[in-house]
Amino acid sequence: MSSGGRPLILAFGDESFKESDVDGFYVLAAAVFDPAVHDEARIVMSELRGRRRIPKLHWNEMDPAERAAAVKTLADLDGFHLVAIGSPVPRRRQERARAGCLRRLTLELSAFDVEMLVLESRTATLNARDVETVRGARFDLPKGTQFRVVHEKGKDEPLLWAADIVAGAIRATKDGQPGYRRLIEDLVYEIDVETRC
Fold this sequence. Notes:
The chain is α/β, with parallel strands linked by helices.
């Protein structure tokens, strides 16, 4: 993908969340890599699957050792990661929390000259909600700013797995396991979002 003869600056996003009437939260992570290393990063992410015949890498399906190896691998790639953390997230309110996080992430990514956010595809209805959220957020961006969101199947875009790893590491920290996040400490910029749920 290119814009005016140069590669588009892309971010790849994925989420993790915990619904709770007491301490619920929503994590929306975006992994950003220099376009020149996208292909290398895809290969590295694909290699993390090892010999398992699975369509995509997923944090929730990894054991602690695999998670640590995945985060260390991510730390060695040339990239940075923006994370919107929304709270509170009561039960059955994760979509409202997602919208708040996505709106804020759009503004932050644009400030880093990102032009397109690739999110893992869900359903057509939920994907359309994401598009509407980003469209609304663009009103708060400088006139002429180019930013859009597209959706890809998780199995088809290994760079989405990088965002899944980041989201998993942040969620683990919120659940009292900060070790994973420490491995990418210098690569992560976190933004707290009031969800008003």
